[in-house]
TrEMBL record:
<protein>
    <submittedName>
        <fullName>LON peptidase substrate-binding domain-containing protein</fullName>
    </submittedName>
</protein>
<feature type="domain" description="Lon N-terminal">
    <location>
        <begin position="6"/>
        <end position="224"/>
    </location>
</feature>
<dbReference type="InterPro" id="IPR003111">
    <property type="entry name" value="Lon_prtase_N"/>
</dbReference>
<dbReference type="InterPro" id="IPR015947">
    <property type="entry name" value="PUA-like_sf"/>
</dbReference>
<dbReference type="InterPro" id="IPR046336">
    <property type="entry name" value="Lon_prtase_N_sf"/>
</dbReference>
<dbReference type="Pfam" id="PF02190">
    <property type="entry name" value="LON_substr_bdg"/>
</dbReference>
Length: 246
């Protein structure tokens, strides 16, 4: 299978195909990445790959701190990811297409990208100003009974939304139409559920759409049952998307 080399943007969250990713880019390694992307002609996609961090820090320490206040902060494209960045990242990620890359007066960037296709991480190169990776596309197979499973997941997801809104003591917005294409449903629900990163990563790398939908159906039923037993949820806004320092 043909491979591709793209800039690599590690995050403490999982990006799914079809989902929007807003970024506030201020670290120099990622500012260099954005400056490089801006060299791409406007009629061509400005692509980079997003992978979830397994062991490391989304933002590298910029000053000495605990446990050693005399230790110097790390520098360079792999700062915060250890001597072998490959070990710091989950092996399946998502290509992002940057529709908007806007440089601010202070040199930071406001970026709005959309996930497109899944990719497998083959190698990481830290020799340049930012990380790049050799990637292999991961095909999305429908699997068995994906259509019927999608219908069940949508019903369970609507119930989950109602329970979540009730536990948070706010009304549920019902104006938005939910999709019916199984692959789109599987990614939308995976992104919208309140789950930890390892669970979302498991959903991203599911072998096919039907497997992802089966997993989501179990998760939705379990999470809905948990929410039903809670009088309220303490988090201020659990359904809001993750905020990235970069």
């Amino acid at each position: 299978m043909t491979t591709v080399r793209l800039p690599l943007f590690p995050l403490n969250s999982v990006l799914f195909p079809g989902l929007v990713l807003p970024l506030n880019v201020f670290e120099e390694r990622y500012r260099a990445m954005m400056r490089d992307l801006l060299k791409t002609p406007e009629d061509e996609p400005r692509r980079f790959a997003v992978v979830a961090i397994r062991d490391g820090h989304e933002v590298a320490p910029s000053a000495p701190g605990m446990p050693d206040p005399t230790a110097l902060p790390e520098r360079g494209p792999a700062a915060g990811f250890g001597p072998d960045p490959m070990k710091a990242f989950h092996k399946v990620g998502c290509v992002a297409d940057a529709a908007t890359v806007r440089e601010r007066a202070d040199g930071t960037f406001e970026v709005l990208a959309t996930g497109t296709t899944r990719v497998k991480l083959l190698s990481v190169d830290a020799s340049g100003p930012f990380l790049t990776a050799e990637l292999e596309p991961v095909a999305e197979e429908p699997g068995d009974e994906a259509g019927a499973l999608a219908e069940g997941v949508l019903r369970a997801f609507r119930q989950y939304q109602k329970r979540l809104a009730g536990a948070r003591e706010r009304s549920l917005a019902t104006g938005a139409e939910l999709p019916d294409e199984p692959g789109v449903v599987s990614y939308l629900v995976a992104a919208a559920m309140v789950l930890d990163t390892p669970t979302k990563q498991r959903l991203l790398q599911a072998p096919d759409t039907a497997s992802r939908l089966r997993d989501e159906l179990k998760l939705l039923r379990a999470e809905t049952a948990i929410i039903r037993s809670l009088p309220s949820l303490p988090a201020p806004d659990l359904t809001r998307g993750p905020t990235h320092l970069n």
